[in-house]
Amino acid sequence: MMKRDRLFAPHYRYYVREMRIMAYTQLLESYRSLTVQYMADAFGVTVDYVDQELSKFIAAGRLHCKIDKVGGIVETNRPDSKNWQYQSTIRQGDILLNRVQNCHELSAFSTIVDISV
């Protein structure tokens, strides 16, 4: 239906890819690790297809997991939200500190320039 729709057809591949990423993410959130075979069975595709898809999405940074090809296991490594929050706070603090320093330098410069002639 979407493939034939005049408005959705150009975006069909993008939409389907995003839905696959969401489905993989939802399944991976429930487990610390699971087999590639289990994922293939869950989605009704081959192990090779799941392996290729996961490899692409992991390399693109869209999925947070790693594949053990020898053991056939997918292990999740979710990013720590507290670490992200800490990094964000540090970054915002640095920006604020730079702005305060710039304001101080401007005020010091303006007092020097304000000398009456």
Automatic annotation (TrEMBL):
SUPFAM superfamilies assigned: Winged helix' DNA-binding domain (SSF46785)
CC per GO annotation: proteasome regulatory particle
Keyword Mitochondrion (UniProt): no
Swiss-Prot/TrEMBL GO biological process terms: proteasome-mediated ubiquitin-dependent protein catabolic process
Alphabetic keyword roster: Proteasome
Top-rank taxon: Eukaryota
Ubl conjugation listed as a keyword: no
Pfam families: PCI (PF01399), RPN7_PSMD6_C (PF21154)
SMART domains the UniProt entry points to: PINT
Name of the molecule in the record: 26S proteasome non-ATPase regulatory subunit 6
